[in-house]
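Researcher: Can you fold this with zinc ion in place?
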Amino acid sequence: MHEEVKEALLNGVAKLFRRPPKTSVTEWCEANLQLGTIQTDTPGQYSTRLTPYVRDVLEDFKNPSIESETLCFGAQTAKTMTMMAGLAWSLVNKPQPAMWVMPNKDLAGSFSETRLQPLFMDCEPLMELKHHDRHKWKRMSMEFIGSVFALIGSNSPANLASRPVGILIMDETDKFAESSDKEANALELAEMRTKTFSSPKILKTSTPSTPEGAIWRNFLEGTMHRYFLPCPECDGEIVLSLNPSKSAMPKLGCEAALKWDQKARGPNGWDYDKVEKSAHYECPHCKGKIWDRSKTKMLRNGVWRQTNPYADPRQVSRHLPSSYAPWRKSSWGRLAVEFLKSMESLEGLKGFINGTLAEPDMAQFEGGDNGRKEAVITELTPLVKTYRILTADKQIDHLWWIVREFIPGGHSRLVAWGKCDTEDDLETIRAEHQVNPDLTCVDSGYEATTVYQECARFGWFAIRGDDAESWVTHDKENKKSFELPYRVRIFDPYIGTKNQGKKKIAELRWSNPSIKDILHRLRNSDTSPVRWEILENLATDEYWRHLDGEFKDKVFNPRTGKIKHMWVKRSRHWPNHLLDCECMALAVAMKVGILKTKEIK
Ligand SMILES: [Zn+2]
């Protein structure tokens, strides 16, 4: 062996047995990494000064108790750079086989050439460990003393499954190749590679795509860390949103909204210059205006906080939209302009929602303030013959309820909605709004026994949603069978108790898919066959949030192998109780004959 090579090798071996340094990962990266002109607009020593939110992510590379790290980050937030820096630290300080997966091989190759290898080659401690055989330093695989590093495209399943790794980095996971029938998908295949290691680390980064995409699912399953910033005016903690009432993010109550001069809209559309200059965040606590120039200081004093208390602490997940990025192209003014421009584009908001807000596309901006199709009325004109229906959705310790008034033929209007604590409160509300007990019902999908007994006590009936499309009903008189989106059963709620035989109640089953389609149709006042109205003062953001809590999506049924369009919740945390109440009211109106099914079908 050549003397120089031998010495270098021995040197490297000695370094292997060095204890991990006491310095933090961030300190090590800032001391040992250089960025060239290809990497950044500001070449020179690597620094986290402008992006302090990446520091905790870097430290997680050192923390053996963290198994997985999911970064659901927007564009321009330095997520890939942070993975590169953490990887360089790992290869030097905690050597073990590592793998970097990108959507495809070409992307991985050019990423290696233009970004990763230049970073590695300028990193002295890593180059000391570099294998001197030049055949072991290739574009897609590099050997170091103590570790082998490979880059792979998600579209090469054979490579994905080929070797065990201790560190697995998956970049842009939501663009990974779809699996064919027989193979596990790329993510699963890659994750299997870490099984033989005692403390492997799996890191995923991506801008999200759909709610079913890997990054969003992993984010929701993890700790859901969010980056909290101090308001420069009142020092209260805030998180940056765009329009909190339309966000797919679970609500924290401290979301700052992005605002701009509404007068910047002229007859020919928005004056983007004015929008950009006037854009600012509004503090949810003090209503103060927060300007882009405060961003750097706010970021420096920001802190990551876990917002999912139920998560396994080993599964860290973080969310960061592009509004946190410190660069000029991510200024709040530019974001506001980008939002308005995408809103007016043919392609719509999907790219903005995924790439900039770092949220899955759940049509959250569809039917916005200007685009609402529902009929909102300013006052209740008195009508001769009306039927009021009260429906309630039972939760653990409260009930959501609505009162909707119908006239025969189906024209209806929402006259009240709210939330109350007990069934006794609901009975008071029923009396106040002069609803007949016969037209009052509570959802029995939750705590059925209690609901049945409360219904018997107050003379109401029970109601429950069902996944069936319809039920066949026989009309004995006319000797006909037909299908209806509801059905009724009468039963004894006290069966098996000492009160058995004293009272009977009814339970109305309604078809989730059919009634939701009907409600959707009625909500569009341009095309609805009957008027379905909301009194103006009831049409609040909260009401619309519930009403928009579900959207129709393609769902794959593995049993039938078919894709079905179904109403699904926008997210686990997005409330939809008033939507259910509105559906129940329609089912009741149909059952009692006020709303004629034939007029809708
Ligand atoms: Zn404030």
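Model: Folded with zinc ion in place. The longest strand covers residues 412-420.
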